[in-house]
From TrEMBL:
It comes from Roseibium album. GO terms for biological process: polyketide metabolic process. InterPro entries: Cyclase_SnoaL-like (IPR009959), NTF2-like_dom_sf (IPR032710). This is Putative ester cyclase. It comes from the Bacteria. Signal peptide: none annotated.
Length: 327
């Protein structure tokens, strides 16, 4: 039986490097005619081959000279959520010399690693009918010397690949459905928390979901951290202080593949801006947040979690144009 993940992986690497006169034929081969792509703000919705080409792939090729894709995770599986179907999901970097503006971000003329979280619905004929992508433009601005927020809460770092180096088209691992079961149970219990300590029952300890040495890799604006204590200090406490009524889990896709699982909502969260957050005073506004989470599990525990959030869109809702404010 053929591996439905591989054609998409082949296409996503080739689309950055084929000669310009071969690009349209390649896109036509791998995308359905009515393929819809939703990209992080300010790109947003792209419909059909020409819009996807002109709105996403050509800007990447033109902004990052000799651009290449470097996957850290590339998995696939049947979607537990509507609209169903088979999906692939990836954590990747687009690397190149940042020589021209990208989606309004000014260039640095230096090497950059633009991190990206990506979900693709793959039809039975192998073509992509739908995509959702969060490119971390805040971290790109940081790399270009134009970080638009106060100091990062956690550690600024390049997203590492899995500690086990087996996240690309995994095979011979545990049943991905079991991995997804674990992550879904964690998400269900994570919703409730103590407003004084920001802890949630069942997350840590001998019978908890997370390994004691868990690693949480956060997006630009938050940063990465180590162990549950670091996660609470660098992300959970500031976030829940600002958005105490947040409700998440509104996912269009949940898949498991071997030791890996991935979930995403567009948007996933609804919440009210009740406290100051990353330099923005509480506004009282109702907000939404686009979210992508990627997990590696082992021995019944979550070991690593890579997180992409569309913070350009979130701050837009708080009346901050982070790209427009660049110096």
């Amino acid at each position: 039986m053929s591996d439905f993940r591989r054609p998409t992986n082949t296409f996503l690497n080739a689309v950055l490097t084929v000669p310009r006169n071969e690009l349209d034929a390649l896109i036509s081969r791998y995308l359905t005619g009515n393929s819809i792509w939703n990209i992080a703000h300010p790109v947003n919705r792209l419909a059909g081959h020409e819009e996807v080409r002109d709105g996403f792939f050509l800007p990447l090729r033109e902004a990052l000279s000799h651009v290449r894709r470097r996957d850290e995770i590339f998995i696939g599986g049947p979607n537990r959520r509507a609209p169903g179907g088979h999906w692939v999901a990836a954590v990747t970097h687009y690397l190149g010399n940042f020589e021209n503006p990208l989606f309004g971000v000014k260039p640095s003329n230096n090497l950059v690693f633009l991190r990206s979280g990506e979900f693709y619905r793959v039809e039975p004929d192998g073509r992509i009918s739908e995509a959702k992508i969060i490119v971390d433009l805040i971290d790109l601005m940081r790399q270009a010397g134009r970080f638009p927020l106060p100091q990062m809460l956690g550690t600024e770092m390049l997203f590492p690949g899995p500690a086990t180096h087996d996240g690309i088209l995994p095979s011979g691992q545990v049943n991905g459905e079991e991995t997804l079961d674990l992550c879904e149970a964690m998400l269900a219990d994570l919703k409730a928390f103590n407003p004084e300590t920001f802890t949630s029952a069942g997350q840590t300890g001998d019978n908890g979901y997370w390994h004691d040495d868990m690693l949480w890799y956060g997006p630009g604006g938050i940063g990465s951290n180590y162990r549950w204590s670091g996660f609470e200090k660098d992300h959970r406490a500031p976030f829940l202080t600002a958005f105490p009524d947040r409700v998440g889990g509104n996912h269009y896709c949940r898949i498991g593949d071997g030791n890996y699982a991935a979930v995403s909502g567009w948007p996933s969260m609804t919440m009210t801006h009740k406290g100051d957050y990353l330099g923005v005073p509480a506004s009282g506004k109702s907000l939404t947040l686009r979210v992508m989470d990627f997990y590696r599990c082992a021995e019944g525990k979550i070991m690593e979690n890579w997180v992409l959030l569309d913070y350009i869109d979130l701050f837009r809702q708080m009346d901050r144009d982070l790209i427009g404010e660049q110096i």
